[in-house]
Design a protein that fits this description.
CATH architecture of the largest domain: Up-down Bundle
Helix content: 40-55%
Number of helices: 10
CATH topology of the largest domain: Glutathione S-transferase Yfyf (Class Pi), Chain A, domain 2
Largest sheet: 4 strands, mixed
Strand order of the largest sheet: 2-1-3-4
Distance between the termini: 43 Å
Number of domains: 2
Oligomer: single chain
Number of strands: 4
Shape: globular
Structural class: alpha+beta
Length: 216
């Protein structure tokens, strides 16, 4: 079998969506190159980047000879189909749907509402931005916590299994963002336990923002 061409990931160190894809690539041990896009310097708006990803958001995955992929869940779905093991899903079709529900609780219901563009559009006042972000994070994290409580986890270390699934790939970066906005995770005991455990695993630590934070 011929070797798959090396991928290139455009990402920002603190971006939740970027961390999802970095972690997914680490879980599947997919060789790739990483190129940082500095959002604080508006590098995502440069034509060199928007020619790859017209949305001007990160992440973006480039595979030689193919159209670039944006949107983290689309990228993760492609990785799942292209590199099926280890899988981002477990169980029967209903449990896999539950995993998608948990993932979308973050992907659709929390993270976009504290995206940098949304915060700036809402207010130029940093305190008001933080208050807005905390509101939506608290609401969404409560939903995620309730969904975990209604799921037969049977003492599992992650959301539905002893291995990370797509649900966890979305949850863990969101927990990091919650901390950044001053949300106390202790009120979401199941989410916090999953977060604390995930950060002890090799793939999660290697893809975490601290590892990619600019040193200058």
């Amino acid at each position: 079998m011929s070797e798959k061409p090396k991928l290139t990931l455009f990402h920002y160190w603190r971006s939740s969506a970027s961390w999802r894809v970095r972690w997914g690539l680490a879980i599947k041990k997919v060789p790739h190159e990483e190129i940082a896009v500095n959002l604080l310097k508006s590098e995502e708006k440069l034509s060199e980047y928007t020619s790859q990803n017209p949305s001007g958001y990160v992440p973006c995955l480039v595979s030689p000879g193919k159209i670039s992929l944006g949107e983290s869940l689309a990228i993760l779905e492609w990785l799942e189909e292209t590199y099926p093991e280890p899988s981002f899903f477990v169980g029967d079709s209903y449990l896999r749907a539950r995993i998608r529900q948990l993932a979308e609780t973050v992907n659709s219901g929390i993270q976009p509402l504290h995206n940098m563009d949304v915060l700036k559009k809402f207010s130029e006042d940093k305190d008001k931005q933080a208050e807005w972000a905390r509101h939506w994070i608290l609401r969404g994290m409560r939903v995620f916590e309730d969904l975990l409580g209604a799921t037969d986890r049977a003492g599992k270390k992650f959301s539905v299994a002893d291995q990370p699934t797509l649900a966890d790939i979305c949850l863990i970066p969101q927990c990091f963002a919650a901390n950044r906005f001053g949300v106390d995770l202790s009120q979401f005991s199941q989410c916090k336990a999953i977060y604390d455990h995930a950060l002890t695993t090799e793939e999660c630590k290697a893809s975490a923002p601290d590892f990619f934070q600019p040193k200058d």
